[in-house]
Fold this protein.
Amino acid sequence: MNDLNIPSSQSTPGVTSAFSEGVLLMRGDSYPENSYEFFTPIIQWLEAYLGSEQRPLRLELRLVYMNTSSVKAMMDIFDMLEEAHLGGQPVSVDWYYDPLNERVFDLADEFREDCTFPFNISSDSQST
């Protein structure tokens, strides 16, 4: 399976994956002009990983800002992780936020409320 290496832009986060390690990392701002187009390869990678592996998957997020369509895409991703978790697959989220940006903490916390899998939110001055 191919790993993702999507460079960040002014309006999209950088995305990298390590299939062999079961890690997907997203870092930066997310307000793409076409969220569906941007998130499709990410969702496809997750579907392929979750469909072929029973190894743990860890989603590491260091997001600074997300527009409404990006929030919707993340909800879809978290729904996929929840389904995998309920099916017995070990999944987790580690969301790091800039302590100067409490809105990101609040957003992450809202997401966490709907998830039963391990979902950690940590302050990290290196999040940007």
Observations:
- The radius of gyration is 14 Å.
- DSSP finds three helices and six strands in the chain.
- The mean pLDDT is 94.
